[in-house]
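Worked example 3 (structure in, sequence out).
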């Protein structure tokens, strides 16, 4: 059994050898033409990073290229080719070390196919290659362009103050190849014309892109920045062009207004209280010194004024629904309490603490009293005595 199989195998091997010898004889018999041309693709060869790619190059007419010299080189570097085939073998030197171990001729030289296969493609491999075939009497060369689309990082949008009430929105992204297109769009998807696009190249030959735009600040109308090579190869980011630090300004304005209002209110309350005290004093004075006939005239006038003022006094209640996250209103609407921000869930509310009254006035005179107490120090604030 064992011997039989071995015999069969050697039989097959012998037949293959005979066939091979026969083929060689046929090709050798076909004379190499005096002149030949090279056939390469018209357009660029597109590849991806780290992929394997073939740069086609074929002889016409078809004949065995094995006795010839095949040289593949970058247009700018003919002295250090990516691959050199000479004297029936691929040469170790002089070749570009960047291509060592990554290039081969896999198409079949005996069939006039000198296509170059390039593995683990890098960004630096992009560009023009020359396929150069020569014998002692004739040479021919043709260019093949290797192109690679590399999609860069997602655009990063930043907003800065731009002067003149506008904001300066910047969009930037890196790692693109070839040069991408940058487009600004508003909320309505309308393109915003902007020629201010800057490209810079990194050490790998990939491009960084950036652009800036002056835009009116807004809390609801976003801006988008799209960077694209094609419809399939694009990246987009959006931003609300908030005015930077706008909340700080709003906070300061609110604070100043609140303080002004508070001091105005306490002044009014103080004046009214002082007026009352004065009246009380005068009342008691006149009660002891003045005659009973005189009293009703003077006292009556002062009291009448006071009651008139008190007559404007409004019964103000606060509306819990309008209260800021840090304000809690009692059931009767008469008292509002400030709660420390930590304890509330609504602390995302950026506005200054406030609450509105249920009542509102448009004209006439109104009067109400406000008592302000700071319970944390257990001391009355705004007490004017
Ligand atoms: C490149 O491709 C090879 C296989 O073809 C893989 O092993 C390797 O991890 C890839 N490298 C990168 C950086 O993608
Ligand atoms: C030449 O070789 C390349 C690489 O192996 C192959 O892709 C191509 O189809 C070959 N051309 C012909 C005409 O066989
Ligand atoms: C906007 O910001 C960019 C930097 O991101 C800067 O180069 C540009 O001068 C700024 N434009 C204005 C008008 O401030
Ligand atoms: C590669 O990028 C170019 C633009 O630079 C584009 O025209 C082409 O369609 C892209 N290729 C693919 C496969 O998306």
């Amino acid at each position: 059994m064992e011997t039989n199989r071995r015999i069969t195998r050697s039989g097959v091997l012998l037949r293959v050898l005979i066939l091979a010898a026969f083929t060689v004889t046929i090709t050798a018999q076909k004379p190499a033409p005096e002149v030949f041309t090279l056939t390469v693709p018209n357009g660029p060869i597109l590849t991806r990073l780290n992929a394997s790619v073939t740069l086609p190059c074929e002889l016409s007419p078809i004949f065995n290229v094995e006795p010839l010299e095949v040289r593949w080189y970058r247009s700018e570097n003919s002295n250090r080719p990516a691959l050199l085939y000479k004297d029936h073998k691929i040469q170790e030197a002089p070749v570009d070390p960047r291509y060592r171990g990554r290039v081969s001729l896999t198409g079949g030289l005996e069939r006039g196919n000198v296509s170059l296969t390039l593995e683990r493609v890098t960004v630096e491999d992009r560009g023009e290659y020359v396929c150069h075939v020569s014998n002692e009497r004739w040479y021919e060369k043709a260019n093949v362009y290797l192109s690679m689309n590399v999609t860069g990082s997602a655009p990063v949008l930043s907003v800065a103050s731009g002067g003149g009430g506008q904001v300066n929105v910047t969009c930037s992204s890196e790692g693109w190849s070839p040069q991408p297109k940058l487009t600004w769009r508003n909320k309505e998807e309308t393109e915003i014309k902007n020629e201010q696009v800057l490209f810079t190249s990194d050490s790998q030959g990939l491009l960084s892109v950036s652009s800036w735009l002056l835009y009116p600040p807004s809390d609801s109308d976003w801006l988008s920045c799209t960077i694209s090579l094609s419809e399939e190869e694009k990246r987009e980011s959006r931003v609300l062009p908030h005015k930077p630090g706008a909340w700080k300004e709003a906070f300061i304005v609110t604070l100043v207004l609140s303080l002004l209002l508070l001091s105005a209110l306490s002044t009014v309350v103080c004046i009214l209280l002082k007026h009352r005290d004065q009246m009380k004093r005068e009342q008691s004075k006149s009660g002891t010194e003045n005659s009973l006939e005189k009293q009703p005239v003077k006292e009556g006038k002062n009291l009448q004024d006071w009651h008139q003022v008190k007559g404007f006094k409004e019964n103000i209640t606060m509306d819990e629904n309008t209260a800021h996250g840090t304000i809690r209103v009692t059931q009767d609407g008469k008292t509002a309490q400030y709660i420390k921000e930590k304890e509330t869930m609504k602390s995302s509310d950026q506005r200054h603490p406030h609450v509105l009254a249920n009542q509102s006035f448009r004209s006439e005179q109104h009067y109400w009293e406000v008592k302000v107490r700071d319970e944390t120090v257990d001391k009355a604030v705004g007490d004017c005595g």
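Notes: Residues 160, 162, 168, 170, 212, 214 surround 2-acetamido-2-deoxy-beta-D-glucopyranose (ligand 3) (CB under 6 Å). The longest strand covers residues 166-176.
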